[in-house]
């Protein structure tokens, strides 16, 4: 048969969804127990309205480690042709069906590991004025899978981290009510590597279907398993040294309902991030570099250029109630709504002279998107504190988070599920109001079996476990106001 023009796809079918799904939402900002009614300097982020109620300005410096385990076992539920074949349409003749792609495949896993460092300073500087500044990392995703594993078409390696710098102001508008707001600068870094399946590319499908070849085919975004994961169409792709900049804001309200009950409400506006970096696409196969030469289309063995990756950090609203049950016991139940539905897709734009094919009217740029269609998530948490007589303060929490990724679009790049939370800590006091909190926070999703992944792209079993261990030093600055 003859082949005609093949446009380069909009390649990145997936940015590391783990970076922006609740999968690798930072487990700790401040301490494991910071929140809208927690009296520490992390109120700069969690509730700027609380700053004016801190006894005196203080520095909160946190050093820790986040480690985890992501597990995925692929379950092939469709009929795939042999990887070295090139049948353009299904169904695949029985003799060409790949028997090895049936049922469960070997399991793969990733063990993300990263040190963490957050610094907040803030507190009351006047009877009705609080100020604060924080530098922290609310999103991080260092992930590395087996590069030959069944998840390779979604993700092989990824590193994404977003650093946030927030300056906040809290103002007491009434003896019992204060409000606050903060402006944030976000800086992101991203690198990733995956295999791009050209069988899922609309441009490729259209090129074969149009003249002069006029060859009907099943390729494209909704291609069935029969024409996916073919060796000739599996092209290595990487995005490196990508950076992004954005602005956002936080706002909060603190209400002292009575001497023993306080209410905290907060809003985080999130942000849209556009990462700009370098891409490389390995096209070193005769099909792309030689076989189409007679038609006037030849790609370089390695296509390189500029890549732009866009996705949104979601909005979130949190509410907590602090209840002093007694002189030694305090509870701080809270709810958070996260608008993950803001993330409808990851979008990629590629620009390079190597993309241009003038005889076919192909420009030096390409666009595509990977639908995510995430759903909003609800987080419920119950932290508590108990002060021992002449001893440390003991802290604990239990909680639950609902999943953001639906079965249809979940994959190894965005692991998620019903998540259970647990944590424990101990705070030790020292002279001059200094204290040291050591804490441990655990997150684990219930094992998730997926059987309705679109086009059988990522059916299988998912597991996720994250542990965060931290040490948090509080140093008062100046006297109490």
What is the CATH class designation?
Mainly Beta
* Overall helicity: under 10%
CATH homologous superfamily assignment: Outer membrane protein transport protein (OMPP1/FadL/TodX)
Order of helices and strands: HEEEEEEHEEEHEEEEEEEEEEEE
Query: In CATH terms, what is the fold-level topology?
Result: Porin
Please mark out the parts with pLDDT under 50 across 5 or more consecutive residues, or reply none.
1-24
Strand content: over 45%
What would you say the CATH architecture is?
Answer: Beta Barrel
Largest sheet: 21 strands, antiparallel
Number of strands: 21
SS-based structural class?
mainly beta
Roughly how many Å is the radius of gyration?
26 Å
Shape: elongated
What does it look like?
By secondary structure, the protein is mainly beta. The chain has one domain (17-476): Porin. It contains three helices and 21 strands. It has helices spanning 43-46, 202-209, 286-289; strands at 58-76, 103-110, 113-126, 129-144, 157-172, 177-197, 234-258, 261-268, 271-282, 302-313, 316-324, 329-331, 334-338, 345-351, 365-371, 377-387, 393-401, 419-429, 435-445, 448-450, 460-476. It has a 21-stranded antiparallel sheet that branches.
């Amino acid at each position: 048969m003859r082949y005609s023009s093949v446009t380069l796809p909009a390649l990145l079918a997936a940015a590391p969804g783990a970076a922006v799904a609740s999968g690798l939402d930072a487990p700790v900002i401040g301490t494991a127990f910071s929140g809208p009614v927690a009296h520490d300097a992390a109120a700069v982020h969690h509730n700027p309205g609380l700053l004016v109620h801190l006894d005196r300005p203080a520095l909160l410096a946190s050093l820790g480690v986040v480690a985890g385990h992501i597990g995925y076992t692929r379950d092939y539920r469709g009929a795939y042709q042999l990887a070295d074949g090139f049948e353009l349409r299904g169904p695949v003749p029985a003799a060409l069906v790949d028997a090895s792609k049936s049922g469960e495949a070997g399991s793969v896993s990733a063990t993300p590991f990263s040190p963490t460092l957050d610094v907040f300073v803030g507190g009351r500087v006047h009877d009705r004025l609080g100020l604060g500044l924080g530098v922290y990392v609310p999103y991080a995703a260092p992930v590395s899978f087996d590069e030959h594993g069944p998840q390779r078409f979604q993700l092989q390696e990824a590193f994404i981290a977003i650093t946030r710098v927030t300056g906040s102001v809290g103002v007491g508008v009434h003896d019992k009510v204060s409000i606050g707001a903060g402006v944030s600068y976000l800086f992101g870094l991203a690198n990733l590597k995956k295999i791009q399946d050209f069988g899922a590319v609309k441009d490729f499908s259209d090129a074969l279907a149009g003249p002069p070849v006029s060859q009907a085919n099943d390729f494209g975004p909704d291609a069935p398993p029969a024409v996916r994961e073919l060796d000739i169409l599996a092209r290595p792709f990487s995005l490196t040294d990508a950076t992004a900049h954005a602005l956002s804001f936080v706002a909060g309200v603190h209400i002292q309902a009575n001497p023993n009950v306080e209410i905290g409400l907060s809003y985080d506006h999130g942000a849209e991030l556009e990462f700009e970096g370098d891409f490389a696409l390995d096209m070193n196969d005769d099909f792309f570099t030689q076989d189409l030469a007679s038609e006037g289309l030849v790609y370089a063995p390695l296509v390189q250029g500029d890549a732009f990756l866009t996705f949104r950090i979601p909005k979130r609203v949190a509410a907590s109630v602090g209840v002093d049950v007694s002189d030694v016991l305090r509870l701080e139940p809270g709810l958070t709504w996260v608008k993950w539905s803001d993330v409808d897709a990851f979008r990629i734009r590629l620009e390079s002279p190597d993309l241009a094919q003038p005889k076919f009217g192909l420009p030096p740029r390409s666009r595509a998107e990977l639908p995510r269609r995430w759903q909003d998530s609800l987080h419920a948490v119950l932290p508590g504190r108990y002060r021992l007589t002449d001893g440390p303060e003991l802290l604990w929490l239990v909680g639950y988070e609902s999943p953001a990724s639906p079965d249809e679009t979940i994959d190894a790049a965005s692991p998620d599920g019903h998540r259970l939370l647990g944590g424990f800590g101990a705070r030790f006091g020292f002279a001059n109001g200094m204290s040291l909190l050591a804490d441990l926070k655990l997150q684990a999703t219930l094992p998730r079996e997926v059987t309705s992944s679109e086009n059988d792209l990522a059916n299988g079993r998912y597991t996720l476990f994250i542990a965060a261990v931290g040490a948090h030093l509080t140093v008062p600055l100046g006297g109490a106001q």
